[in-house]
Amino acid sequence: MLIRRWSGTFRRWFGSLWQFSGARIALGSGQHAEWERRARMDRFTWSVVGGVLLLAAVAFAMVAVNRVPDRPPDLSTPDGTVRAYIAAIQDRRPEDAWRLLESSNAIESPGGPYGTRMTEADFQRQVNSMSRPSNRRIRVLPHRQTGDTATVDVEIVSTSDAPFLFDGGSSSRRVTFSLHQGGGEWRITAAPSVWEIG
User: Fold this and answer.
1) Checking CA distances to 72, which of 15, 34, 39, 60 falls within 20 to 30 Å?
2) pTM, 2 dp
3) What is the CA angle 98-99-104, rounded to 5?
4) What pLDDT score was predicted for residue 139?
5) Count of alpha carbons within 13 Å of 191, Cβ hemisphere only?
6) Mind listing the pLDDT tens digit for each residue in 76-128?
7) Which CATH number does 78-197 carry?
């Protein structure tokens, strides 16, 4: 009788211990699964961040390699003088552009009779009132020199967003600068309208 009582007690105690152990194991398995899920999410997040950083580094490297360092134009060359003049017009620095002209006869006054020359005040007002087109590219071509005179052609390429059949695409034209050398520097003796290069 005593043995049977102890045997029943032992079975109940062992069963409780077994259930408790199963619950511990189940709980431990759930925590482990949650930890693995979070670890996978962390690995995915870091992979995305690493990919973005890698793309940013590649883009920065491409910009650094393709960027041409800005150097001041060489005023001892005809094309350098033309570059400086165009840059001054585009940057709205009429005083600097005017100093590169040999005289006021280098540029005609628009809207006036043929041969009418522009004053410095008129030149400044015209340059400062221009709007800058975003669909225009300007390329200075190599100069042609004869003694102390030279000519420089400038190619102007304009693009349009309209369909090709409706005069879209791009078009190009050339304008010419004439220059004269004096005192080791070149000055412009004839320049196209500022509207064409601005």
Assistant:
1) 60
2) 0.60
3) 55
4) 93
5) 35
6) 999 999 999 999 999 999 999 999 999 988 987 666 566 667 889 999 999 99
7) 3.10.450.50
**What does the DSSP assignment read for the chain?**
-HHHHHHHHHHHHHHHHHHHHHHHHHHHHHHHHHHHHHHHHHHHHHHHHHHHHHHHHHHHHHHHHHPPPP----TTSHHHHHHHHHHHHHTT-HHHHHHTBSSGGGSBPTTS-TTPBPPHHHHHHHHHT----SSEEEEEPPPEEETTEEEEEEEEEEEE-S-GGGT-EEEEEEEEEEEEEETTEEEEEE---HHHH-
Domain ranges for the chain: 1-67, 78-197
